[in-house]
Specification:
- The chain contains five helices and 20 strands.
- It has two domains: about 50 residues; about 200 residues, Fumarylacetoacetate hydrolase, domain 2.
- By secondary structure, it is mainly β.
Length: about 260
Amino acid sequence: MAQRYVRIQNQQGQIFYGLLQLSLSVQLMDAPPWLGGQPTDMTLEPGNYEILAPCSPSKIVAVGKNYADHAAEMGTDVPPEPLLFLKPPTTVIATDAEIKYPPQSQRVDYEGELALVIGDRAVDCTPQEADSKIWGYTIANDVTARDLQKRDGQWTRAKGFDTFCPLGPWIVRELNPGAKLQTFLNEDPKPVQSASIDQMVFSPDVLVAYISQAITLLPGDVVLTGTPVGVGQLQIGDHVRVEIEGIGRLENTVTVR
């Protein structure tokens, strides 16, 4: 099993990065791992910590319509260049946290995605340089108020509500390029989304390079790489689970805001 890097909070409210062991104890690190943090001799046992989102990004840069089948289901062609938008850091929540359904919307959708965690400052990178800026991988759910997205004509409000970026549960350093991404709703064993991440139109290194031509990416920032076909509506009370082979599962329940 790949090493799992977590961000946790102890019972005193202190926040640490650490390595999750098979026993579910966490070996604490002395700094974020992408900033050179090293394991310490301190551990926290299960029950003595809460798992947080695995990083605290200064920004989340997301990519729209990066799977051809999803672009088609949205009634559009694949953009000739990556289609970028931002989600504020206040959208980020951890696995098992609640997605709050905003009263302004009548249609909130799930969008399971692979997320990239940036490990080094990225400015004006080539794809080859950008590949070395990707420190690791985690799972995201790009929750979207679909009716507001259509009504507003741009995506800031629809993508930017508090709790609209579940992220986690941890970060891994390596990932199979053909890993399967699947999204499940409630107890239905049949996924509502299922695709290999190598079906992306623009690969992770190309995305990071493209973003870096306009926006400086900082260590700990997150890039959402787009969602495959099968997006759909969430209802209050739904349990949504996004899985990516080689990472794990991100689970959240929808509640009233």
